[in-house]
Specification:
Largest sheet: 7 strands, antiparallel
CATH topology of the largest domain: Thrombin, subunit H
Shape: elongated
Strand order of the largest sheet: 17-16-28-14-15-19-18
Structural class: mainly beta
Number of helices: 4
CATH class of the largest domain: Mainly Beta
Length: 432
């Protein structure tokens, strides 16, 4: 009971400040990680001024080059990913034909170990009668389909991805749904063979830049690179932070702000409060900022030494990536793996919930104490990963931050988590 009274009096002390910050909200951005491929694969890169018009690839034991795997072209300095069948081993012979009727071949290439093969150098020669020829349409494998990796080269976050078939009147639904594609993120775009190969594609970036391409043969592209332009001072991504001291210290994840020229708290009406960077730790994935001269509310932590239990109930306070300032989302979850178990000594895993891309969002226990910060992808229905409160406290104390920590104890009667966490959780703008 004394613990409950202490917490209640603490929040009463800061009611005026909380009211002042009632316009703040939470946003949560994206990083898509691609797991290592199970099959042998390598990028074919064209270093020649003449486009590559055919690619033949076969295991070293085969005597026949087979059919053209490319079904398109590779222009100068572009790359195309060849994927071999795992059952056929790692060592392959690769033969390419250029548009100017020159060819180049590379023998006995271990594409399980070599990720990129450059063509168009000293090995280029004229094609002779013994070499394979660009095949006819009839020799192409049936049922070509779209299987393309969209790669965001940055610096802006992709907030919309649309495709349009030839002759269609509208762009249809956003392939990203409520998610985003952060810089260096990857999104696997697939379509059925019956839907055809030629598509228009529209990529919308945070800040308003739109990359629109027409008549693209996506069946011939294993990878499509996108890069959004942005002007100085333009918002290129969104993030989340929260107050960790009474002196305006704001904590967030390192990866969500690493490409930012500056970071600011977003306010309704387009206003921003600039933050000053204090420290970061790329390996731990934490970044610390501060609002100079601000006397702020603070999110209390569970004391170090009181760990998490598998099955413990927690609450993630956050927003979907498509942020609406002032509309915070609260998602219940449970611990899957505690720190020191399968998740590692500084991480724990939590059950997938209703918040998509909750990076930087604080995770609370049933007493309203912060026990972690979400930092790895968590899509609806999939597990997420968070940095543990003990690792966070070590990082903050190393920066001489005076934080508030309390014992966990038995679950206490709490106000709504939305009202409780709203004053300390902050939407951040990543500015170019």
């Amino acid at each position: 009971m004394a613990m409950r009274d202490r917490r209640s009096s603490f929040w009463c002390l800061w009611l005026p400040t909380l009211a002042m910050l009632a316009g703040l909200a939470l946003a949560v951005p994206a990083r898509a990680q691609t797991p290592p491929a199970a099959n042998p694969q390598a990028f074919i890169v064209n270093r020649n001024a003449s486009p590559i018009v055919a690619v033949f690839a076969t295991p070293v034991a085969d005597q026949n080059w087979g059919y053209d795997k490319l079904a398109g072209t590779i222009r100068q300095n572009q790359r195309w990913q060849f994927r071999g069948e795992a059952a056929r081993g790692c060592n392959w012979d690769i033969f390419v034909i250029f548009q100017n009727d020159q060819v180049e071949e590379k023998r006995n290439q271990n594409i399980c170990q070599v990720s990129q093969l450059d063509f168009g150098g000293q090995g280029v020669r004229a094609r002779n009668d013994r070499d394979p020829s660009p095949p006819t349409t009839q020799s192409q494998p049936p049922n070509r389909s779209v299987d393309t990796m969209i790669v965001n080269q940055g610096p802006a976050t992709v907030v919309g991805l649309f495709t349009q078939s030839q002759g269609a009147a509208s762009w249809g639904n956003d392939h990203l749904g409520t998610g985003t594609l952060r810089p260096q993120g990857r999104f696997h775009l697939r379509k059925l063979a019956s839907q055809g190969c030629t598509w228009n594609i529209r990529i919308v970036f945070a800040g308003g830049h739109v990359d629109e391409r027409t008549g693209i043969d996506l069946c011939a592209m294993s990878e499509l690179l996108a890069a959004g332009r942005s002007a100085p001072g333009q918002v290129i991504a969104y993030g989340t932070g929260f107050y960790v001291s009474r002196h305006g210290h704001v904590l967030t994840t390192y990866h969500s702000v690493r490409t930012c020229t500056s970071v600011a708290i977003a306010r309704q009406g387009g206003q921003r409060i600039p933050l000053v960077k204090v420290a970061d730790d790329a390996e731990l994935d934490l970044a610390l900022f501060r609002v100079p001269g601000l006397l702020s509310p603070v999110a209390p932590f569970r004391i170090a030494g009181e760990g998490l239990r598998a099955g413990e109930r927690l609450t993630v306070v956050g927003y979907p990536a498509r942020r609406v300032i002032g509309q915070v989302t609260v998602a219940e979850t449970t611990v899957i793996a505690s720190p020191g178990a399968t998740a590692g000594t500084t991480r724990f895993q939590f059950q997938g919930g209703a918040v998509e891309e909750p990076w930087g969002a604080p995770i609370y226990d049933q007493n309203g104490l912060v026990v972690g910060v979400a930092n790895d992808p968590q899509f609806v229905g999939r597990a997420g990963t968070a940095i543990s409160h003990e690792a966070i406290q070590r990082f903050l104390r190393a920066q001489d931050v005076t934080l508030v920590a309390m014992p966990g104890g038995e679950p206490q009667r709490m106000p709504s988590m939305q009202d409780y966490a709203f004053p300390v959780v902050l939407p951040l703008d990543c500015v170019n």
